Amino acid sequence: MKHLCRASLFLIATLALPAGLLAQDRTNPDLLRLGNGIAAIAEGQIITVEELRRELEPVIPRLRAESRNAREFSQRVDELSGEVLQNMIDRIIIVKAAEDKGLMIPQSYIDQEYNDVISRDFGDDRRRFLDYLKARGETARDFRRNIYRRVVVNVMRQEMRRSQSEISPERIENFYVENKLRFYQGESLHLRQIILSPIADEGLVTLRQTAGQVMRELERGANFGDVARKYSQDEMSRRGGDWGWIERKDIRKELSDVAFSLEPGEYSDPVELGGTIFILYAEDKREEMIQPIARVRDVIENVLAGEIARESQEKWLQDLREGSYVRYFL
Fold this sequence. Notes:
Blueprint: H1 4-15, H2 21-24, H3 29-36, E1 38-42, E2 45-48, H4 49-56, H5 60-66, H6 70-100, H7 107-122, H8 126-135, H9 140-162, H10 169-178, E3 184-185, E4 188-196, H11 204-219, H12 224-231, E5 242-246, H13 253-259, E6 271-273, E7 276-286, E8 289-290, H14 293-322, E9 326-328
């Protein structure tokens, strides 16, 4: 890949052209050389520079916008070109590995995927779909082949992930010990509120009367959520005044001091603040602590499973690469 920077100059030049112009220009020798150039050969299959250009085309506007100058743009195109070319090569060698082991994908499945693309992305307009392929210099057969490769690659990756062994308890415990701070849990409260705000010329006297009625209903055992839906005058009233889990910093100190003094299942006396009356309810509480391993075991397993999958996939892919014939021309 050490010569890729030279090729990126061609890529940058053609990526700036309107779609389809490369295929139409039959007089420019540089463009002809680019269009017919070979980027790599993997297991006997040729990847052309034009195919690489098409893969890069969608992200070029973002790279151009994010680059401070032409030199940085060229460098970023060069780096991305290497990654994209390697991905294209990997798809080929994964498909070959799948075919060598006898993996069969029903043609009906490919046909369904093909028709779904036309329906979803082109509104069932096959003419528009074919015009799109023509502008990209592709055929319907090319498109079906790409669908087949994508499906095969996904199946092979899924099979590889399923083959991973279970994570040992020792590895889970070691991860927990080494990463305890990741499982720090700050003090938090599952808060419900009834908020009474003045309407028009309504004053505090009327609000206090309403608050008294609310308190009487709660004292008779009414469900706080039902009372909130009936009286509260904020956007959370439809959810029974449920504000979810909060920390002290999430609400004003005058309210957080009251809210965090409540035990689960308790509600506060009315709190008057800035012409509004608040009645607070503690649905549940979490104390400040390092969560015990029993509570976070599933989280740790998911993290470790992701790490193992990435490590195993990279090794699996590296083994496939080492056993494959690949020649780079860029």
